[in-house]
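dumping this here so i dont lose it
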């Protein structure tokens, strides 16, 4: 009996300790989802030369860019946190469109619940406007800086009430801030190779690949374009237009970012004209000529939510992995259940 009491007291002490930790707000810098990034360096803060063919790609500071495009699963988690009412139209009916997107919505304004159809989790999110992508960046930033408390989408590196959310250069310098990459940031991460044979320079495509033929080579083994549907398990009876992110991992760019050629066009933070922004990388339905570094496009930042438009994020610091508080909470529940079993075992 005394032994059982000692065990129970020990378990209760452990549970209390875990509870104290679990109830402590996460430290600043804890992001709500895992977004893997790669480092794009500028040694000694000296800008690399721009691509002579396009004048793009010169960046004179270190930064990080998403290794992968933001996925539908990540967008679903964002919606469940920040779009219970969905004042800003972060979800639309097209996001539940077979072949492209599988994000579902049920409930009523104020209590919307978002789910995802099996098979779409790791495919890039599409049907996202530029303004929605910026709100996602603000939300990530505010989640990190508030320790997981704030679901604000309107302020941060983008003030959505001013000038359509132009990147604030002062906010951008703060730790924990996430934004869309600029045209130059995106271009350098995709095409530049500081260790290119014959001297630092640019490839035609972002498909260098470790130990693979250089990024001046293109075929359907390297990217999803020209309706190749290479993720189809049915030998030609395609199910999905979009490949899961990382499908062409062997053909990443020189810095390690994946799928910057094909799959979906990606928003950048650069204006094409007052109402449109530059997109890069081409998509699943692009022809081979459109995949080249000297090709880009532009879409309306207000209205264009299309089946081939997605994005990835950038930051000046690596994006930390999500906090482990959910794991701690699970351990706490397990310990308390153990206490109850112990007490039942010694009951008269």
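and the seq i came up w/
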């Amino acid at each position: 009996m005394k032994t059982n009491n000692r065990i129970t007291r020990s378990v209760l002490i452990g549970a209390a300790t875990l509870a104290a930790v679990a109830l402590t707000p996460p430290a600043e810098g804890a992001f709500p989802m895992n977004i893997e990034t790669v480092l794009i360096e500028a040694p000694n803060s000296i800008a690399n030369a721009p691509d002579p063919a396009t004048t793009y790609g010169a960046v004179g500071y270190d930064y990080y860019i998403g290794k992968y495009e933001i996925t539908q699963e990540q967008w679903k988690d964002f919606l469940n946190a920040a779009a219970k009412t969905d004042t800003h139209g972060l979800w639309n009916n097209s996001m539940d469109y077979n072949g492209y997107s599988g994000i579902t919505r049920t409930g009523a304004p104020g209590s919307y619940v978002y789910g995802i159809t099996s098979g779409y989790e790791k495919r890039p999110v599409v049907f996202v406007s530029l303004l929605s992508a910026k709100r996602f960046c603000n939300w990530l930033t505010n989640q990190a800086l508030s320790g997981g408390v704030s679901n604000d989408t309107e302020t941060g590196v983008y003030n959505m009430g001013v000038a359509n959310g132009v990147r604030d250069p002062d906010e951008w310098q703060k730790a924990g801030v996430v934004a869309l990459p600029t045209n130059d940031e995106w271009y350098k991460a995709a095409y530049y190779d500081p260790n290119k044979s014959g001297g630092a320079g640019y490839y035609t495509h972002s498909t260098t690949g470790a130990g693979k033929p250089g990024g001046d080579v293109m075929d359907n083994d390297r990217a999803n374009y020209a309706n190749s549907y290479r993720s189809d398990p049915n030998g030609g009876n395609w199910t999905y237009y979009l490949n899961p992110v990382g499908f062409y991992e062997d053909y990443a760019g020189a810095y390690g970012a994946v799928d910057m050629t094909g799959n979906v066009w990606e928003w950048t933070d650069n204006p094409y004209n007052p109402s449109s922004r530059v997109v890069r990388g081409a998509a699943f339905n692009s022809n081979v000529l459109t995949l080249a570094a000297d090709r880009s496009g532009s879409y309306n930042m207000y209205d264009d939510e299309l089946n081939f438009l997605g994005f990835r994020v950038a930051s000046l610091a690596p994006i930390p992995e999500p906090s482990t508080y959910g794991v701690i909470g699970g351990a706490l529940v397990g310990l308390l259940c153990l206490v109850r079993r112990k007490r039942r075992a010694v009951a008269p």
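The chain has six helices and 13 strands.
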